[in-house]
């Protein structure tokens, strides 16, 4: 069951013409519930024009600040993002979930971190870099941040201020649509990645890399780092969206499956079509299954197959080991056996 807490909007700041940061008033006596690690996200729930909408947004404040703040950038046809950037006001009520997510950074002394972010991918990275700089003076943080223009660069002035304030913070802006004095021209690609790790910052031995942005950028930077013998286990990423796995999708048939879902110690059984996702079918049968992004890029809808088999058309989060153990993202999972059992409690 998804648990949401009523709160109000404490502050809204227009970071760019199309993006805002939103500060929440943490519900009374719920401070422990909303403790988080840099990089995590919360799910927002709001009825918008008669429809209940949920979306996940990364926290951009730091755990030590006592603030709970997210950043939201308007996207084309984005119901929640369009509402948040144009209609949401200070004092409005909204429901939020407790922080979650595996994209995390817990800073350690004498470590060197590098991050590659594009667009609103800066949101969790901002929390990470501020946490490192404010808590570990012996550590360093290098940020490569890509946008189309400076005007569209979220937290531009704040990042420049951090560069002035901390000598162990290295900042690189990249713009793809304009040439600026304080930015390189182009996109975050293999050439730029190699330039930073092999040339400009070759004297820094990076311990961990954090990537957040579009799928193509994530794969390009990740592959380039691995080619440079950067340990894959030290490359952490979070995607905006992920592409479909055509091989897995080809296994989905037009048949039906009898599905049993265990949630909060109660079992619900019904028949679903295999072309439907497990989450969508569960919600239609009034099972209060947890979910957020519904795009396969968060882990809110995590379930476990204890009997039968399912395939996921998208997965950028679960490891091969977790998949082998039966874990699935139910928003992307389709049953492919006559019967299947899903456990939401044992995750």
From TrEMBL:
Gene3D superfamilies membership: 3.10.20.30, Nucleotide-binding domain of ferredoxin-NADP reductase (FNR) module, Translation factors
GO MF assignments: 2 iron, 2 sulfur cluster binding; flavin adenine dinucleotide binding; metal ion binding; oxidoreductase activity
Highest taxon of source: Bacteria
Ranges of residues in domain FAD-binding FR-type: 2-106
InterPro entries: 2Fe-2S_ferredoxin-like_sf (IPR036010), 2Fe-2S_ferredoxin-type (IPR001041), 2Fe2S_fd_BS (IPR006058), Beta-grasp_dom_sf (IPR012675), Cbr1-like_FAD-bd_dom (IPR008333), FAD-bd_FR_type (IPR017927), Flavoprot_Pyr_Nucl_cyt_Rdtase (IPR001709), FNR_nucleotide-bd (IPR039261)
UniProt cross-references to Pfam families, sorted A to Z: FAD_binding_6, Fer2, NAD_binding_1
Cofactor(s) needed: FAD
Keywords, comma-separated and alphabetical: 2Fe-2S, FAD, Flavoprotein, Iron, Iron-sulfur, Metal-binding, Oxidoreductase
Limits of the 2Fe-2S ferredoxin-type domain: 257-347
Name this protein carries in UniProt: Flavodoxin reductase
């Amino acid at each position: 069951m998804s648990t949401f807490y009523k709160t109000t909007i404490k502050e809204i700041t227009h970071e760019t013409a199309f993006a805002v940061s939103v500060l929440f008033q943490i519900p009374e006596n719920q401070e422990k519930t909303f403790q988080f690690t840099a990089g995590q996200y919360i799910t927002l729930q709001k009825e918008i024009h008669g429809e209940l909408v949920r979306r996940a947004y990364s926290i951009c404040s730091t755990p030590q600040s006592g603030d709970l703040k997210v950043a939201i950038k308007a996207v084309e046809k984005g119901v929640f993002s369009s509402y948040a950037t144009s209609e949401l006001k200070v004092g409005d009520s909204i429901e939020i979930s407790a922080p979650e997510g595996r994209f995390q950074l817990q800073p350690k002394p004498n470590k060197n971190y590098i991050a590659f972010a594009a667009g609103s991918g800066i949101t969790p990275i901002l929390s990470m870099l501020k946490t490192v700089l404010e808590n570990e003076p012996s550590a360093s943080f290098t940020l490569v941040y890509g946008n189309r223009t400076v005007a569209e660069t979220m937290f531009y002035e704040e990042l420049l201020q951090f560069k002035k304030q901390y000598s162990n913070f290295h900042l690189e802006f990249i713009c793809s649509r304009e040439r600026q004095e304080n930015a390189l021209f182009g996109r975050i690609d293999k050439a730029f990645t190699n330039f930073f790790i092999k040339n400009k910052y070759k004297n820094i031995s990076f311990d961990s890399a954090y990537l957040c942005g579009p799928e193509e950028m994530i794969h390009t930077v990740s592959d380039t780092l691995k080619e440079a013998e950067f340990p894959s286990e030290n490359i952490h990423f979070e995607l905006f969206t992920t592409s479909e796995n055509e091989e897995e999708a080809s296994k989905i048939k037009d048949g039906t499956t009898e599905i049993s879902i265990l949630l909060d110690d109660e079992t619900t059984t019904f028949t679903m079509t295999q072309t439907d996702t497990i989450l969508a079918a569960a919600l239609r049968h009034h099972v209060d299954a947890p979910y957020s992004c519904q795009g396969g890029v968060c882990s809110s809808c995590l379930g476990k197959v204890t009997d039968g088999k399912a395939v996921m058309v998208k997965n950028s989060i679960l490891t091969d080991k977790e998949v082998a153990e039966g874990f699935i993202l139910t928003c992307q999972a389709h049953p492919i056996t006559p019967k299947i059992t899903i456990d939401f409690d044992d995750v």
